[in-house]
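Example A, followed by Example B.
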Amino acid sequence: MHTDYFSPACPRVRIFTNHIEFYNPGGLPKPFEELKGKDISLPRNPIIAKLFRMVKLAENIGFGFDKIDDNWKAYNSTMPDYQIEFDSVVVDFKMEAQESVRETSGKTSGKIIELIQGNENISIPEMAETIGVSERSVERNIENLKKKGLLKRIGPAKGGYWQVID
């Protein structure tokens, strides 16, 4: 509802591994601080805004920025970054929480390798308890290590052992 449809640029959403970027052609009708500080709504396209209000996807009072900030912070514990230019607005949502999950997964794989190097007969439940993650997490990491050719199971589940491949 705030896009400048006379601009040659088009709205877009770009998804990266560590952030999501929303680009909207058209600058803000007032300074950003003023819009955030007051409960005013100045849509560039009032007809589209009215349609959104009729189906309860928008309201009249202009709390859009507050909702964006509050909901993203509740979801991700970070604040979105606003890049406001004369002719465009970019809202950048960092996904640091997701990155820490990936880092944790990498650390878990490393700990699994260390545990197996110390005891090739160690069980998945023992690894999970030692590392402090679920058994399913250990199983997923083991599957990834096997796919990468870094780990191999020799023999059956009971009576077999792990082999770390250099």
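Example B, a separate protein, is given below in the same form.
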Amino acid sequence: MTNPIVKAFWDEPTGSWQYVFHDPETMKGAIVDPVLDYDANAGATYTKNAQAILDYVRDTGIKVEWILDTHPHADHFSAGPWLKEQLGAPTAIGEKVVGVQKLWQVIYNLPEDFPTDGSQWDHLWADGDTFKVGTIDVRVIFSPGHTLASVTYVAGDAAFVHDTLMMPDSGTSRADFPGGSSRDLYETIQKILSLPDETRVFIGHDYAPKGREAQCEATVGQHKAMNIHLRNAPSEAEYREVRDARDATLPLPKLMLAALQVNVRGGRLPEPEGNGRSYLKVPMNYFEPR
């Protein structure tokens, strides 16, 4: 089995990890969860993160075959469409994204003709789908809990598990967003932990607790032995009690109400209005203060 070379990119403002993995034999690769930068104070997007990814794949000689989203993110904008323009590679996400689109169509009061069929991406993956990146076998695992649409990509010995697990010293990710579920997240984590112990687990976020350097990788075996939410809460009931109690103390992400109306569009801004500009809107008093 060919295993991928993985290059990680960290976006410090949002604590987000982005990845490029490629097959060293064919130099074919894929991008996972790229970030489009957003200055909320200025209402301005820019492409510092995406440009770094673009420079890396060009300098390394990687032929990008897919631009992959694991789910519609609540804490950053997706740079998938911009990278598609630069590289010509198709975009893809899990097929359950249509449920997220329908949910947030209501929250944002989007028009009835807003597409909720996932057509903003080039391809929608079903649970268990497989595809190739060069000679590397990639498997799609439906992995809800953080959102109702999340998927994990297992490429050789690397698993891109998005917002399910954090680093072992931080535990697991939250499950309190609309459509989230601690029960579903527990079941998803069990799927991930059933992978071989040597599987490299690449996470979606790290907030570098206690001043350590940001990290993105641990093995399945390390999570089994050291993950603070799994080690101390071995049963589903115990895990859900820990997860739900923790989620009740967390504020909503600063960029959530901006990011979701971009990311349900596949990373595109809302349609420009009569003056040629796009606008974001905030659903007032839909969410309770935290």
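On Example B: The two ends are 48 Å apart (CA to CA).
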